[in-house]
Each structure stands twice: as structure tokens, then as C-alpha cells.
């Protein structure tokens, strides 16, 4: 996948926030990733239990150019165009567990700062990634795993057309005990 392809998606698709850009990881993203991956307040959504070192994150960025068929994952930075055509990173969106034989992948999304949430950035990024996954990668389905108490994420994915296809009982352990997790799926109607 080419950066120009994603930039083209960002410019050609309509929507609430046409100034959203999905782009490839760059070495200069190390500080953002280090801050976000080590924020213990959001570890529960990524099943993270230990912090990431800058060394590991640098290796991850260095290998991010590899093909999705090799790594089975793909991460984009979500940027917005701020005043004066400056870009500002607000989060990440991932395809993971890419399965080319079964034509499916999981999606994860993070809008890092609370002040950037609720502005439509996640909606626009998710819609663009769905279009890329279905039209460019020709996937048959996408899925997401979301805890049932994460109402904002459930609403986001359901608004994009995902349907809850099952509940995994007591799936995620947290400080209060266990939480159920919903499996959401979106089928490509044109495949």
C-alpha cells in the first residue's frame, strides 16, 4: 500500500471531517507511540500488561514498511489538518490478524487524548479504513472485539455498519473482576 493511496482516500472521500489523513508510520512518530502505548489508562483496550520501550517501538516502526501479507498487520497514524495546513496526529488505526485465505482482519482504533474524542475523527478514520480493506485488499469481512462497557466504541462500530454477532462472557479481566466482550462483524456486501 502506498502513502499516496491513503492520502488520495483522505482527499476523495466525503464525510464529516475531510481533513483526516491516514498515513504510514514515520520515525518521528516514536514519541507519540511511546506516550500512547505506555498510557496505563488505555491498556485495557489493547490487552497490554507491560510498558513498551523506545527500542522496541523503533524496531516496530522500522519494520512497518513490510507488506501486510508478511506481517499480518498494518497500522496507520490518524492525522488531522490543523490551522495553516499543519498536520497533527490524534491516534492510530490498525488492521490486525490479517487472514488472506479467509479474507478477514480485525480493526482496532485509538484516539489518544480525550479532548480529541467525540469530534468525528474516529468515525472518518474507520470509514476510510473499511473502504481500503474492502476495495483495495478485497477482504470479505472485518471484525472488532470490544468490551461491553465501552459504549463509545460499540456505538462507533455499529454506526459504521458492524453488527454484534456474539458475546464472550467474562472474557477480559480487570481490577473489578471480569468484563464481557462483544464480537462485532462487518461483511463486505460486494464480495
Kindly describe this structure:
This protein has helices at residues 3-12, 30-37, 43-46, 54-62, 68-71, 121-136, 151-159, and strands spanning 20-23, 74-81, 87-99, 104-111, 141-147, 163-174, 177-187. With 191 residues, it is of the alpha+beta class. The protein has a single domain, classed as Gcn5-related N-acetyltransferase (GNAT) (Aminopeptidase, 3-Layer(aba) Sandwich), CATH 3.40.630. Strands 1-2-3-4-5-7-6 form a seven-stranded mixed β-sheet. The chain is globular and about 40 Å long. The chain starts with a helix and ends with a strand.
Tell me what portion of residues adopts beta-strand conformation: 25-35%
Q: How far apart, in Å, are the first and last alpha carbons?
A: 20 Å
Estimate percent helicity: 25-40%
Described by strand count, sense and barrel closure, the largest sheet is: 7 strands, mixed
Low-confidence stretches: 1-8, 10-14
The average pLDDT is 85
Question: By CATH's scheme, which homologous superfamily applies?
Answer: Gcn5-related N-acetyltransferase (GNAT)
Neighbour order of strands in the largest sheet: 1-2-3-4-5-7-6
**Number of H- or I-type helical stretches:** 7
Strand and helix order: HEHHHHEEEHEHEE
Amino acid at each position: 500500500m502506498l502513502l499516496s493511496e491513503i492520502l488520495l482516500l483522505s482527499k476523495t472521500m466525503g464525510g464529516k471531517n475531510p481533513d483526516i489523513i491516514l498515513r504510514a508510520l514515520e520515525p518521528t512518530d516514536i514519541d507519540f507511540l511511546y506516550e500512547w502505548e505506555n498510557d496505563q489508562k488505555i491498556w485495557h483496550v489493547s490487552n497490554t500488561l507491560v510498558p513498551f520501550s523506545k527500542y522496541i517501538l523503533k524496531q516496530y516502526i522500522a519494520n512497518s514498511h513490510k507488506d501486510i501479507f508478511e506481517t499480518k498487520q498494518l497500522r496507520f497514524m490518524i492525522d488531522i489538518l490543523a490551522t495553516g495546513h499543519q498536520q497533527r496526529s490524534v491516534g492510530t488505526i490498525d488492521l490486525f490478524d490479517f487472514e488472506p485465505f479467509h479474507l478477514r482482519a480485525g480493526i482496532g482504533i485509538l484516539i489518544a487524548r480525550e479532548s480529541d474524542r467525540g469530534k468525528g475523527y474516529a468515525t472518518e478514520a474507520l470509514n476510510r479504513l473499511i473502504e481500503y480493506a474492502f476495495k483495495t485488499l478485497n477482504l470479505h469481512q472485518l471484525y472488532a472485539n470490544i468490551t461491553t462497557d465501552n459504549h463509545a466504541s460499540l456505538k462507533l462500530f455499529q454506526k459504521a455498519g458492524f453488527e454484534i454477532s456474539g458475546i464472550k462472557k467474562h472474557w477480559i479481566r480487570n481490577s473489578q473482576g471480569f468484563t464481557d466482550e462483544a464480537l462485532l462483524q462487518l461483511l463486505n456486501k460486494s464480495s
